[in-house]
Each structure stands twice: as C-alpha cells, then as structure tokens.
Amino acid sequence: MAYTSEWKRRAEHLAKEGLSRTDIFNHPSIQCLIENLNIDSVKDKIKQIYDKHSPLDVMGKIRVSETTKPPYQSFSSTALFSDIKRAVMPDSYNPFNLPTPEDDRAKTFQLPVGCNNVAVFSDIHCPFHDISALTTAFKFAKERRVNTIYLNGDIIDFYTISRFIKKKNLRNLPNELHKCREFLTVLVDTFSDCTIYYKIGNHDLRWDNYIASNAGEFEGMEEFSLSTMLHLPKHKIHIIESSTVARIGNLNIIHGHELFGSGGVNPARALFLKTGCSTMQSHVHRTTEHTEPDLEGKIKACWSIGCLADLRPEYNPNSKYNHGCAQVQTDGSGSFHVDNKKIFNGKIL
User: pTM for the whole thing?
Assistant: First the structure.
C-alpha cells in the first residue's frame, strides 16, 4: 500500500510539472514503483491524476484557473508567452507522430550582469580602418572606464573574398587577416581588464560563406573557422554568431544585416518600425536616434551608430557616413542608458 500511495503522489507532482500522461507513466520514479501492479489500472489512474492536476489541457494549452492565473496573467508579450508555453509544454507531445523539426530559431544572448559599462565599436573594416577615429574611440572608452568592449560586426572587410568585383592591387587575403589580428592584439592589450565580444557582421560572414561555396569539405572544421583564423580563443574574445540577437540589460543589439530595410533617411526610425522595441544597430555607418512613447507611456528608443572605417570608400565616394561609437550602461534591473557619439576630426561630439 505504501508503494501505491507513493507512485500516486509522484504522479501528481509530475502532472503539475506539465509532463504528458505518457511521460508520467514512463518516468523512472514511477516505473520503479509499479512493477507488480496492474498496468491498465495504473494508466487509468494516471489519466485521472493528469486531468485533475496538469496545468495543460489536452491540446497542450495552459489552463487558466485560480491556481494558474497569478503567474501568467501579467504577461502580455506574445513572444514571452510562447517561451513560457514551450517551457511547460512537454517536447514529446506529438499526437499525430509528425517528423521532428530541425531547430532553426535565431538565438539570443544576454550579456552577464557584470558587463554593465559597455563600449560599442563597429564597422572597422580592417584593413580599411581609420586610425584617427579608432584612437578617439579608444580614448573615449578609457575615459568612461568601461569594463566590456562589444565589437558589433564588420571588424574585418574580407574584400578579397567578396562576391563583388575586386581591384587586383587590393586582393590580398593574408594582409587582411594580418591587419585584423594586429588590431585585435592592440585592442586586447589596451583593454586588458575588459571582457570582449566579437559579433559576426555581414562582412565577417564572408569567410564562412566563401568556405561553404568554394571548399565545402572544410566547412565545420574548427581549424578553418573565423574564430581560429583571427586568433580569438588566444585573446579570450567571445564570439557572437551572425544571427544571434544580443542583449545588454534590456537593450537589444544587432549588427543590422539581420534585418532588411534598416537604413533610409533615419536608420534608427527604420529600425524601430522593424523591431518595435529598444534596439541598437551598426551596419549603416551613421549616427541616428529615434525615441517615442507607446500607448502606455513607456519610452522605446532605437539607435544606429557610426563606423570606424574610411568614410569615402571607392564603392561609395559620396557616402553620408560618419565616424562614431557608443557607450551602454546598465543596472541590475536591466534599465540602460545609451550615449551615442559622433566622431569628427579626432573629437567626440
């Protein structure tokens, strides 16, 4: 009798956790107690327990009752609700035996709470970087005593392996890699006490795309990864993949190539229309900001930041680019403050 009471108690607990009836029955903590019992009777009892105690209905939806209202009522975000549903809904629930899908969802990465004073540098495009702009950005970060450097994409240009037509005198892949490695060495030496992140932008991504298109046999080999080629492990630089959305506190940060149409007259406003939430991007080489309240009076803001590369590249001699960098400060609650700076003639504006 003790065994009977114990497996029922455990079954109730598993049902409240959101396990399916099948998972409850097959759970090791149940199986070890029902070996000598009538299986059909056990399954019938599990169904009764599941119907009474599970937070999920038969279609896998969260039940709303007096016991489930408080945790779920306050969530209005569809994305957040989906995350909650995935967390409590058994992965094995598949009544029609559909084929298992591949996981192709974009990832997110939350910077640690300790990374609360962040300098954002981006669009350096080694070996077409601008020494004066980089020097000013370095000094700015030093003066602000940042504890984190976030390289927000397009750190190397990869001109040589671009799909666009290249000039013969500029096609020099070893030189591009060498200059970028040199830059990263200087960066690490200058900010030796900082945590450093390297986000993959569309130019950085040219390396993986070239390998995939021209040397597929090497694809996936660590020896030929961008991280290895740029010596990132040696410098303890953390890589953020191309499609990953990072978060500094409650601020989303992307390179910008992840979205289509995020440029225009005011890239920050275009970014807001695309995301609908507070987000920072690079990619467009321009310093802009857009802020507006929502219906509840909550302020949402978006920023695009300037580049640290040559402002008059041959492919765009009449560009509207400007140099720039940014600082993001956060507190433990996720609140953040952005200081988005232009750089002009070696001075922070």
Answer: 0.73
The first and second tokens of residue 138, run together, are 């370095």
- The residue with tokens 């560009």 is 319
DSSP state of 222: G
Token output for 54:
């599970």
* CA quadruple 202, 169, 229, 193: dihedral sign: negative
Closest CA to 257 of 211, 302, 203: 203
In DSSP terms, 313 is beta-bridged to: none
Longest distance between any two alpha carbons in the chain, whole Å: 86
Domains and CATH numbers, the chain: 2-88 (no CATH), 108-348 (3.60.21)
pLDDT digits (tens, 9 = 90+) for 117-167: 999 999 999 999 999 999 999 999 999 999 999 999 999 999 999 888 667
Q: What does the alpha-carbon distance between residue 196 and residue 31 come to, in Å, rounded to a whole number?
A: 49
Closest CA relative to residue 118, chosen from 81, 151, 70: 151
Secondary structure of 59-94 in HEC code, one letter for each residue: CCCECCCCCCHHHHHCCCCHHHHHHHHHHHCCCCCC
Chain segment 262-299, per-residue pLDDT in tens = 678 899 999 999 999 999 999 999 999 999 998 888 89
Alpha helices in the chain (DSSP H): 2-16, 21-26, 28-31, 39-53, 69-73, 78-88, 131-143, 173-190, 206-214, 226-229, 232-235, 267-275
Task: Record the tokens describing residue 269, joined without a space.
Answer: 């406003």
Pairwise CA distance, residues 228 & 248, whole Å: 26
**Torsion angle (degrees, nearest 10) of CA 283, 286, 287, 290:** -80
Which residues are within 8 A (CB) of 245 and not within 5 positions of it... i.e. 6 or more apart? 106, 107, 108, 109, 252, 253, 254, 258
Task: Write the DSSP string, 30-57.
Answer: HHTT-TTS-HHHHHHHHHHHHHHH-SB-
Three-state secondary structure call for residue 174: helix
